[in-house]
Task: structure prediction
Amino acid sequence: PEAVKAVAEVLRSAERPVIYAGQGVHYAKAWDELRELAEKLQIPVTTSLQGKSAFPEDHPLSLGSGGRAIPRAVHEFLQDADVIFGIGCSFAATGFGVAMPKGKTIIHATLDPADVNKDVASAHALIGDAKLTLSALLCELDGATASRDGVTERIANVKAEWLEEWKPKLTDDSSPLSPYRVIWDLLHTVDVDNTIITHDAGSPRDQLSPFWESRTPLSYIGWGKTTQLGTGLGYAMGAKLARPERLCINVWGDAAIGFTGMDFETAVRERIPILSILLNNFSMAIELPIMQAATEKYRSTDISGNYADMAKAFGGYGERVTDPAEIVPAIKRGIAQTEAGTPALLEFITQKEIEISRF
Result:
């Protein structure tokens, strides 16, 4: 109780607090408590990739989620924070996550005491289930409110400025296609609230996660402290088995499909109608700047294949898309196939894009 009381007082008196929510919020089903705390004290919220969708990203207090690619609002608000409250997270140091800035008052609420002070020094620690921890804090804060004038307006302004800078890629009409255009059109075509989506390792993760707006709990399967290419296909199939009424999507690249692509046949054989979005640029583009000699001498980053034809050969639906005007119609055709019970693979021929959002 004393530890909870101390943390409640720190949050109440903080000038620029930020909540960093991790996967533990999902495990504890603590979504309502997280939202209640954020709204009560008007605290901006960001999540780890694993915690993405724990807080609605269309909420005025949402900063979005960060991994290797980071939306500008996440970076700016963490840098400017005086207090960072991590709930249901490990604060593990990883090149595929958000690094916590130095000189902040860190509150670490986690189920595993081994997490505390492992990679990030904490001024306060709360050990326990995320739902119970947040409930205890809310009881301690009963009747408390906080007025943080202009915080939601600042969030909206930073987001708008950032999106405006990315709009040329998100709405690019050129061919080969921009992977960001494919993701942007996908976001604005599907019923987001009734969709479960997962990325893959590498570029698809870093291109999808900053721009995909998750609004309902467990609608985004985020991962990425490790980089096992091809993992997302199995996640999408598992999601479809668990939630057959949802549209379940995996977004991957031509390197990832080389690892597990044959298991698209499993989806066909077992009648698991997922929508598979393949971003094919015939290369491991993200490696090009660091593998120049290997590429020139041995074509080490080159990849080939017609994966839409592969999907059709397995008995699924396959379509290759090269025209930006056909992105949305193709997505709609793919969704229709899944609704009819057929797994669909849409192969978008894309640019060798290596830029990601780094604030």
Notes: The first strand starts at residue 17 and ends at 21. Residues 50 and 86 are 13 Å apart (CA to CA).
